[in-house]
Amino acid sequence: MRLPRCFQRKLLPSGACNVSNNIGSGFNSNGELCELDWNFDESNGYYRALLPLSQFSRPPVNYISGGAFKVGRSTRYYGYISIQLGDNRMAFYDYSYKKQRYLVIDSLSSMVYPQFEKAVEAVIYSFGLLSGSLTRDELMLFRHSEPSFGKVAGFQFRQIEDTILSSIGTIDPHEHKMYAGLDKAIHFSEEDFSKLATLCFNELPFKRAIRIITQSRNLPQEIKTASFFVALETIKNLITTSNEERTRSFKEQDDAIKLILDCRGLVNKLLDSKFNFKKRVLNKLDQLNDIGNNESFLMSFELMGLELNSAEIQCIKNRNRFLHGNMPFENEGKGVKDKELSEIALRTHDLVCSLILKYAGCNCYFKNNLKYLNLDDGENKIIEPLFKKI
User: Fold this and answer.
1) What does residue 96 show for φ and ψ, rounded to 5 degrees?
2) Can you tell me the distance from the alpha carbon of 228 to that of 315, in angstroms, rounded to the nearest whole number?
């Protein structure tokens, strides 16, 4: 990596990952940097993050059209995505420099660095959910004292983790345009992206579910499917908890409390010798007004206005087998097993992602990944649309 001259004269406080030296007629060294910074602190400022975009990844403009912008002498007429995270104004776009394309995230409001880092994660994970690819190889950070981003006040470079490339995304405006014969592509809106990123920024369980999905897409089928079911459980809990008045058995909580106390009184009058597990009975009574686990999954989709077909309901019923280590299709041949597991993984992925988008209040055309796989295999057994409105 070639650095600006003002950085080349500075020390490397965090050192390097590995370095090799060659002492001969001169002194040469090469290696890989872990971290590098110069005059970087976490005080209030205007921050800019750059993440190198893989040549196999598509930029944000493929999914969110954005608006016009100018960088240096270059003018672009689309691709500048405005994001509002609470009181924080952000911008998200891609930019090419010396044959390398970068994802760029700017803070347009003054903020402390920990908040900016949290905002960067919210944007990157939200974009990864939509696109299918999670960009995170390297992170270059610039701190500026002015919103013009004219003068660099601090710099930091970090190696993060491997980028995850995947063909499993949640939207594809260009393919939807061709599939539906539209005059123009229907992109994901800036407003909806702000909603998605804001929830990721504010709600840790929501962010955790998206992280699980984006980080699991390239794992082996069994682990991937189990991970998707964990994400589904997380989002389901968020939905049922936020709709507690509609999910509990009794409309009035006081009625439930009175009945539970009356029933506990009846149980406590019985001799302990009548029970194998008296405490278990009392615990069950305390849960009388709670929604059952199986019912809560189906109700979470109902609460979000998503109708499930019989195949989707059957898929949800498989979750306990995966979460408890009982893999289905163990007695089948490898080809059959891989195909069946792949179908369940994609079905589960699409279910949890549609639930995430609806919970965030997004309005878009959702990509049916299982239908894609079915068509790629030269089949047309999945009688479902390739794109559906949610």
Assistant:
1) -100, 135
2) 12
Cα(301)–Cα(296) distance, integer angstroms: 9
CA pair distance 361, 355, nearest whole angstrom: 10
Q: Which of 77, 86, 85, 154 is nearest to 125 (CA)?
A: 85
**Tokens 């490397």, residue?**
12
State the Cα–Cα distance between residues 343 and 42, nearest whole angstrom: 46
Class of residue 285 by CB neighbours under 10 A (exposed 0-12, middle 13-18, buried 19+): middle
Cβ-proximal residues to 69 (8 Å cutoff; 6+ apart), any chain: 75, 76, 79, 80, 93
What is the 3 state secondary structure string of 55-124? CCCCCHHHCCCCEEEEECCEEEEEEEEEEEECCEEEEEEEEEECCEEEEEEEECCCECHHHHHHHHHHHH
Q: Are 170 and 205 in contact (CB under 8 A)?
A: no
Cα 355 from Cα 306, distance rounded (Å): 8
The Cα–Cα gap between 169 and 127 comes to 10
Range among 201-210, 235-244, 381-390 rated most confident: 201-210
pLDDT, tens digit, for every residue of 28-50?
A: 556 666 778 888 888 999 999 99
Q: What percent of the chain has a predicted confidence (pLDDT) above 70? A: 88
What SS3 state is found at 141? strand
Contact yes or no for 240/300 (Cβ under 8 A): yes
Q: Which pTM does this prediction carry?
A: 0.84
Query: d(Cα 50, Cα 105) in Å, to the nearest integer?
Result: 7
pLDDT band at 16 (very low <50, low <70, confident <90, very high): very low
Residue 380 has pLDDT above 90, yes or no: no
> What are φ and ψ of residue 78, in 5° steps?
-165, 165
What's the CA gap between 326 and 225, in Å, rounded?
12
- For residue 236, pLDDT over 90 is answered with yes
